[in-house]
Amino acid sequence: MSFFQSPLRTSPKGLAWHRATTLGLGILALAASTSPGHAADCPGNPNALGTSRTLVVDPMEHPRIGTMQYSETLPLRDHEVVLTFDDGPLPPHSDQVLQILASECVKATFFIIGRMARQFPAGVRKVYAAGHTIGTHSENHPLHFNKMPPERIRQEIDDGIRHTEEALGNPAALAPFFRVPGLRRGAVMEDYLVSKGLQSWSADFPADDWLPISGDQVYARAIARLEAKGRGILLLHDIQGRTVNALPKILQTLKARGYRIVHVVPATPSRPKTPTDPSQWRLHIQSEHVATARWPTVPYFRFTASETMPAPGLSASELYGGRLGNAGLFAPARGDDPPDADWPSLSASQLAVYAHAHPDQPPALPAPAATIFDRPEKTRLAMNFGVRPIRRAGPPPILASQPPRHPRALPPVAPRRMIPGSHPITQSGLEPAHPMRGR
């Protein structure tokens, strides 16, 4: 007879024992899914960074995450990081990234391009076999995603999902996570993702590894931006040689500075979501008890013409040898000009003369004008993460033999800001990257 058929369960003492046992097993299971990883659990590397915990999310409860574009992000604790990689797989760089992550027993989220999955299906299966989460990144990685017709947007999303599922051989192995190429978000795309039960992933900070910079610069930007925010989603690309060069040092620095890696997976009927509070999904909690980062607006009020402020008492050793600018209350002493010509001086001797002539009235200075408090209030905080604007070609040079053009012939073109992302895939066939290329 099994335990579930035992008459012991029917007695009050047996029922109480069963409830206690069930509760204990549940607590142990929860602790196993959220407890910090131990270095000893990483074969061959007892000092590994490891994966701190697994975060289970419901994609439709918070359908858009990443503070680079949205108001919400993953509910991470202080010094917790989620690693994400875009544009793969592409050997050998994607394989090298997997090896580096495995050496530190770190789990990440990979956003796969459909065409890359078709050409390198074994690379997609390697990512899944290593225990990482797999999302999608469109079929062809077009960088004008927000300007495409709705039917083209839907096709890019659907084809990318279909080809990634075919490479995996198991649709259940694909997470309902999507990151738009170049972070070119749009209402059509976001509404379609919600209709398909997909969560739109942006990021909290990038490392600019799609730019022609060195691996050391990728490392420096990733760590500096993480330190500035304290936690969040890091955007990287597993197809870049510079990322391969920077990743080991990034992981070592995260370990040295006390950061922890969080692995994100979607909720399923057999895997319930991690309990969270709505406030945890915001990087910075808005509260009346927390000072804001904006300069507060100065209230408007009138100044009376006769209103003054008491002047501070001075001695011969204070400020400019006992002098203080008084905005015209006294003329400067002869031969004793103040350091700033815009501020007439008030010497210690003149203060003594004034105090003798007006014993009951201390010297006074005019009240400041309201204009000195004028500060434009910033409603948005510009965070371009050092992304350089796209340089567009100007008009061709005018030769001496050519007549000058009319100023209105060439209207000015406003520069466009480069959105994080990699280059679009345009070639008909993709070849494995050279092992030394891009380093």
Sequence-ordered SSE layout with sheet pairings:
Elements: H1 12-34, E1 53-57, E2 64-65, E3 80-86, H2 93-103, E4 109-112, H3 114-119, H4 121-129, E5 133-136, H5 150-168, E6 177-178, H6 187-195, E7 199-201, E8 205-206, H7 215-229, E9 232-237, H8 241-256, E10 260-266, E11 308-310, H9 348-357, E12 364-366
Parallel strand pairs: 1-10, 2-7, 3-4, 3-9, 3-10, 4-5, 6-7, 8-9
Antiparallel strand pairs: 11-12
Helix pairs in contact: 2-8, 4-5, 5-6, 7-8
Globular, elongated, flat, extended or rod-shaped: what is the shape? elongated
Mean pLDDT: 75
Share of helix, binned: 25-40%
Note the beta-strand portion.
Answer: 5-15%
Order of helices and strands: HEEEHEHHEHEHEEHEHEEHE
What is the count of β-strands?
12
